[in-house]
Amino acid sequence: MYIHFIAIGGSVMHQLAIALKLKGYDVAESDDEIFEPAKSNLKRYKLLPGEIGWYPEKINKDISAVILGMHAKNDNPELQKAKELGLKIYSFPEYIYEESKTKIRVAVGGSHGKTTTTAMVMHVLKNAGKEFDYLVGARLQGFEQSVNITNAPIIICEADEYPASVIEKRPKFHFLFPHIAVITGIAWDHINVFPTFEFYLEQFEIFINKIEVNGVLIYNASDKVLKKLVDENKRSDIRYEPYSLPTYFIENGHTEVIIDGVKSMPLKVFGNHNLLNIHAAYLVCRELGIEAHLFIKSITDFTGAAKRLELLLENKNFNIYRDFAHAPSKVTASINAVKQQFPERTLIAVLELHTFSSLNEDFMIEYKGAMENADKGVVFYSSHALELKRMPELSKDKVKQGFEKDNLLVINKKEELQQFLQTENFSNSNLLLMSSGDYEGLDILEIVNSQPTHNP
User: Fold this and answer.
1) How far is CA 449 from CA 21, 100, 151, in A?
2) What is the overall mean pLDDT for the chain?
3) Which of 56, 126, 325, 430 is the one with CA 20 to 30 A from 447?
4) Cβ distance 284 to 222 under 8 Å?
5) Mean pLDDT, to the nearest integer, of 222-247?
6) pTM of this prediction?
């Protein structure tokens, strides 16, 4: 097989290229900009383009398939040449399906929790010695790559609802056709792509209808929106496995869970959202032949995916957690998880608004109550982020009105956020950092570490 990647430098796209080379395929590549860590990863596997830019002369009839990255535009000269030659052009998910037609396909979708649930399934299957392929949108302990394509009989996919490519605007999870599907919950997001909640909801209805005949849908029945969608769109040719919050106990800052009558040791993850993820992951693993006692034994040492309530610092009276949370439902879940786990500690929550949705004035009302359980809440955003996304100015008053939190501190200058962190007393507290960005380059861990008030 001879595969050509247009815009190989994407965070997941370059991982697919590496996986296909390791499988023995001939891989060619191009891009007009490649950043770290993709640059180093591609260089390691001798897949880094020799010259940056687009070279239509590279496109010829010997190419078996062209895989189009999200970064490429519709007028890309290599894409135009591929169309002229009548080559097979795939988006990332379309090609994943091509490689997995003979496999048992598992697709984990939902507005929140899909990365962690996918990671939990992968962790358990690996410990059980199962052979499987995978794609997941985060760095995971124990897995060198985030995409693996071999001749394994199973593939575990994080199923994203974002558009597949510049020429295929339908969501990625519409192309996976799973035998085992999961929906973890539904909360409106990506308003630049899905301008109304109804349109967003419709994508999940389509996803349900893409499940293979005699397949199974595992869904969070405690999510009222999702339960209503499922109830109104019942199929007679698939099974339904609802799940909800399992029985659990919290003692001395540690959580234990009971699944199918089997009790765990203290878990390394916590929060109701993670307990729901565990229940969903168990139901997937059960479908794949993993018994409850084996699942519980394995899930006990699961440490989580990168930037999902990731513990950055821990001592006797102060912890720092980093989380990818940015959508309202994710912010609420992360804040509630930390507060429930450490009710006696002051919770200081710092949220950076960085996505199109979170920086949109009209979307701000969706954050109502999201930071209610934080003892001290800080919302940070920068004019630079607004400029990059070509969005209008966002006033502090609009942010405060949206969140409806009396003591909310709204900061839109990096220097002010740095000053807040340098003067805050972190004794007997937890600091929760929530962002899909980088706080304008602030090294928050270093700033807090220099504070005498957080000493063990």
Assistant:
1) 43, 47, 47
2) 93
3) 325
4) no
5) 96
6) 0.86
